[in-house]
Amino acid sequence: MFELIATVCVAGACHDQLVPGFEAETLSGCQSLAAEWQSNVEAVCQPAGPALALTEIASDVYVHIGEIAEPNPENKGDVANLGVVVGRDSVAVIDSGSTRKVGESLWRAVRQVTDLPVRHLILTHMHPDHVLGASVFSEAGAQVVGREGLARALADRQDSYMLRMGQEVGAAQVAGATSPEIDLEIVDRMELDLGGRRLVLQAWPLAHTPTDLTVHVPDARLLFAGDLLFDDHCPSLDGSISGWQAVLNDLIAIDVDHMVPGHGEVLDWPPDDLPLDRYLTALEAETLAALAAGTRLDQAATTVAQEVSKEWHLCETFTPRNATIAYTQLEWE
Question: What residue ranges of the chain have pLDDT lower than 50?
């Protein structure tokens, strides 16, 4: 497989990036497509770059499992779970990864399983490891869909997200990444038709973040939960502790066989045991106890939910943050 790679220069700094939709089995086929590309940017056909690994978890439904780690130069930001749902007429991609390069690798993976157009990119929430690869899909003509408020949330955080990701994975890896433009925001519930396959998009109240959106694939009896669910990777609170618990109770009641968390392995549903529920319960109860005892915030951040954190990876980083957020919320309730 060959693909068109453009050299893009911004403020004197240049980087190579994939031109999505200009792929062919042969070099001559790629060059023929390239002749139709209308741009003044220099571009050449090259052998296809790396593609993310996709696992088929139901008929024409795929997931890429990200590494359980913080973004770093070694994993190049490949730390979030990403989804691909193929219908008769089109494709929906669920989340796009943390950088342009991750998004390009996801695009190549999609092209390995189907030639159908990617008509929708659905973003499950605002965090950068799920959204900063979106430009590849919007350039290919996909409609970018998110929960109501996502565009504003991303605009408010764009500079900090880009700075943080560059520090974590390196400037070369984030080259070409941009905060996505949101074409459609979901207020409550909406259905998408991929041709013989229906997706149900559900916006949720303030929970993991203010921008949580899930994707239900009814005919496959599964749901992409984004970061409303975590497995193995320590949960990350950026919304409401009580709101997240309420939404988790609603998720437990959904009639599906599997749920795809934002991080970790695909979960059988309903689960016999749900560590996330145990973690959030401990976080709330121990924070309330700290408040009742007059414990200062800085002390609570290092003592709350320490025992339950042993069940997870990365909690040495995330639990102090979670405890700080829970403390500031619960002291006013």
Answer: none
Q: Give the alpha-carbon dihedral of 103, 104, 106, 109, to 10 degrees.
A: 170
If we measure between CA atoms, which residue out of 303, 261, 252, 237 comes closest to residue 94?
261
Q: What are φ and ψ of residue 311, in 5° steps?
A: -80, -5
Token match 């924070």: residue? 287
Structure tokens at 102: 């991750």
SS3 labels along 198-243: EEEEEECCCCCCCCCEEEEEHHHCEEEEEEEEECCECCCCCCCHHH
What does the alpha-carbon distance between residue 179 and residue 158 come to, in Å, rounded to a whole number?
Answer: 6
> Using CA of residue 194, residue 113, residue 105, residue 32, what is the dihedral sign?
negative
Q: Could you tell me if 287 and 247 are in contact, meaning their C-beta atoms sit under 8 angstroms apart?
A: no
Quote the pTM value. 0.95
Please state whether the peptide bond connecting residue 20 to the residue before it is cis, i.e. omega within 30 degrees of 0. no
Using DSSP's 3-state secondary structure scheme, residue 304 falls into coil
